[in-house]
Amino acid sequence: MDIYAIFGLQLALSTVVFAVLARLLLTPWLDEQPFRVALTVLIAPHAFRHIGMSFLVPTLNHGTLPTDFATAAAYGDLIAGLLALFAILALQLSTRFALPFVWLFNLVGVADLANALRHAEAVPHFGPTWFIPTFIVPLLLVTHALIFVRLLKRTPQAAN
User: Fold this and answer.
1) 17-20 LR contacts (CB < 8 Å, sep 24+)
2) CA atoms of 145 and 26, how far apart (whole Å)
3) For FRET with 30, which of 38, 42, 44, 104 sits at 20 to 30 Å CA-CA?
4) What is the pTM of this model?
5) Are 56 and 160 in contact (CB under 8 A)?
6) Which domain, by its residues, includes 81?
């Protein structure tokens, strides 16, 4: 099996596993939580997106990762991670900016992942950073989807 097939299989299967676990275990629990608590739990993994800065460390990707990909993915993740942190803080402080921050974070985060995933030329060069797109990105994709679902289903009474 070639490297692109392995990458695609791992990305797809990790996404399916996270989606199944989210549906069976996480979603029922989140449905019982206040709106801001549920969003905070879903946003929390994104606060660690600074890990994407690893793409800029030559010894982690054999120094051959395409610069366009590495720079965009690293800084896109850093920005998304900071926005996630601000969204969490705004939710916990119940500021009037909380939902706009959550929307901004979620839109920027999805755009960053979509941009990174279109760079197939980077696949052979990931080295030890391979786990980021094949394990962490699927978790982030699933939680982004769950955040969108919660935001779109939100009723005025659900703000707590």
Assistant:
1) 17/138, 18/138, 18/139, 18/141, 18/142, 19/142
2) 13
3) 104
4) 0.93
5) no
6) 3-159
- Smallest Cα–Cα separation from 88: which of 141, 152, 25, 80? 80
Map tokens 């946003």 to a residue: 43
Q: 72: which residues sit within 8 A by CB, 6+ positions away?
A: 115, 116, 119
- Count of Cβ atoms closer than 10 Å to residue 156 Cβ: 5
The residue type of 77 is D
DSSP-derived 3-state class of residue 92: helix
**How many domains are contained in the chain?**
1
Alpha-helical (H) ranges within 22-136 are 27-31, 35-43, 67-93, 98-117, 131
Which amino acid would we find at residue 17? V
The backbone region for 62, taken as left when phi is positive above 0, alpha when psi lies in -120 to 50, beta otherwise, is left
Is residue 131 exposed (0-12), middle (13-18) or buried (19+ Cβ within 10 Å)? middle
